[in-house]
Structure formats: structure tokens, C-alpha cells
Amino acid sequence: MIKPQPHQLIILAFLLSFSHTNVVVSARLFPNVSSFLPAHAPLGGAWDAFRNLTGCHRGENYDGLANLKSYFERFGYFPHAPPSNFSDEFDDALESAIKTYQKNFNLNVTGVLDDATLQQIVLPRCGVADIINGTTTMNAGKQNETASFSKPRFHTVAHFALFPGNPRWPEGTEELTYAFNPGNDLSNTVKGVFASAFARWAEVTSLTFRETASYFNADIRIGFFSGDHGDGEPFDGSLGTLAHAFSPTNGRFHLDADEDWVVSGDVTQSALSSAVDLESVAVHEIGHLLGLGHSSVEEAVMFPTISSRRKKVVLAQDDIEGIQFLYGSNPNFNGSTVTSAPERDTSDGGRCLTCVGSSWSVFTLLTFSTLYFTLL
Fold first, then answer.
1. How far apart are CA 119 and CA 50, in angstroms?
2. What is the CATH superfamily name and number for domain 1-14+22-38+153-376?
3. Which residues are annotated as a binding site?
4. How far apart are CA 376 and CA 374, in angstroms?
5. pTM above 0.70, yes or no
6. Within its chain, how far is the Cα of 233 from the centroid?
7. Residue 25's pLDDT band (boundaries 50, 70, 90)?
8. Given the residues 285, 298, 299, 343, the one annotated as active site
9. What contacts 208, CB < 8 A, 6 or more positions away?
10. What is the DSSP letter of 347?
């Protein structure tokens, strides 16, 4: 039997790795949804059942509180509690979590599940946690208030916040490339929405963004996925967590393929009650990719939640101050935002592999190469 050459093993391992990590997912993308459902269709979301908890307060047991505790744990408000231990008791820990949540979202701090609090909780939102390692990026983190979980790790300036350790793309970075998961087979129209989202950040900073066809070599890798997709942050269906992105220099940007994404047209006039504006979510997640955490400023694109049938793409002053703190200002920025599409590179070559690539891919390649060689 002829032994394969080392370069053949690497190619085989690459193909195996690609096939296991890039399952084809058909995202729900609508250019115009006005004809799909009648007007005022009932709105249903992943967390709608929480509406039944209105009025719940400390000292009682209520069916469904265990699920609410899991929600708070997911977004950092119960950082040390194992989900298996959650009960339906409205205990001191839940009251404390609710108060921290209410402060973060500019609500009356009562510790009670009032109507306004639950209306905020059930909104679609970003999957990135509000509190990381016990420290919130939002209102409750100001003046080094940390919800009594651990020592402060978030650096806050004005209202905006940065991730722990203040990660950013390396000093001197002028251009970042981005690419789309080939398994999604996105149209040029959909890709153009992301180009516009990147352009909004490029208008106010020294960074530029360029599309490349080389997915594994790109600085930023974008894909639509359903449910558990291997990064420890599973999606939950319509109108739950819409998307999530990782801090620099990870580069992963994932969107829930089960959402009803509106690509163009006036999303605010959509007859589809679950319609989500793609560009609005893209602009928010790009902020995370560049190093911004969540903001308590409701007008900011870095605010964690967004209602269905709403468009929110214009950077607020808080967003601009945050990104310019990290990367400086675009010398051509005059204080207003005008979107222009960045350069697209659809060649197969793209850029050379950067240090931020994906270490898991190298490990997978080595593992498959070793396994294949052993079996020969």
C-alpha cells in the first residue's frame, strides 16, 4: 500500500475538519416579509412564559422561577450557581439578581418581578452576558459596584464598557478581513447588509474592513447556526438570543438561523411579528468583535436588547466614544454617520493566515493527521 505524503495528510485532515465544523444551515432570510403573515400576528418568543411571573416576590414559590434563574445564570447574574440546583423558590439570591438586572436596564430597583421588568426580560437580545466573572459592564458596575460576586475586572469609561483585560485588535492594525461560512451559501444582497454594518464602525475609527473568500484565514468569521453549534452557547429558536460574538482577537460571529431575518425593506412595517432586522444585530455584534461590552444607554447600539420589527443601526455618542477609546478616530469623521460599503475581496487567496486564526483548527488537523497515519 502506498503511504500518503505529509502534505496529503494535512489536506485530508483539513477536509475532515471542515466537514465536521461547517454543517450547512439554511437561514431564514426575507427580503420583504409583508406578504407572509397577516398584520398583528401574535408575538411569541423563547421567554414568553416568563410573563406569567408578574408580581412574584421574595419568600414564595412560583412555578417557572427555576427557568427564570437559568435565564439570569446565562447572562451572568448567577455566575457561581450550577443550573441543576435551581428551584422555584423566590430566594435572596434571585432578588439580588433582579435588582442588579433592574439597575443595568434603567428600571425601578425593587427586586420584584413587576410588569416593566418582565417586559424587558422577554425581549430578544444578544447572547453575550451582561456580567462576566461577577462584574457587570452596565449601570450596576459603575463606582466599582460588582453585585458582590468577585473583584472588579471590567474597565468602564463613561457609559460604555470593555471586556475583561481590555482586549482589542493589535496596535497598528489598520484592516480586518471578514468571511462567511461557505455552508450558509449567502447571497450578495445578504453579504451587503454586513458590509454596511462594518462600514458604520469604519466611519468613526481608524479601522477598515474587507471581505475575503478565505473563511479560515479571515480575522472575523461569520455564520448562521441552529441550536447547539459547538461553542458552548447554543441558540434557542425564535426571539431568544439572536446572535453572539466573541471579544478580540477570537473573531467568531454567530447568528441564530431560526430567526426571521429581514434583509431589506422597512422592518418596522413588517406584518411578520417575529421579524428581526439583520443589519441592526450585525452592527451590535461587530461592536463586541472590536472589544465593546454592553451599554446601559438605551439609544446605543451596544444596548443588549432589541425589539422585533425595530431598526437600530446608527451609532450613538456612547458607541462612538467607546470605539474611539480603543482605536482612535477616523480623521475624516465629522460627527455624522453616512454608510458606505467597504471593499470586498472575493478571490480565493484572501490574506495570509494571521495569529488570530483558529487554534482549534490546528489541533483538529493534527489529531486527524495522527489518526489517519496510525490507521494506515
1. 9
2. Collagenase (Catalytic Domain) (3.40.390.10)
3. 126, 185, 219, 229, 231, 236-237, 244, 254, 256, 259, 284, 288, 294, 302
4. 6
5. yes
6. 10
7. low
8. 285
9. 174, 175, 176, 202, 342, 343
10. -
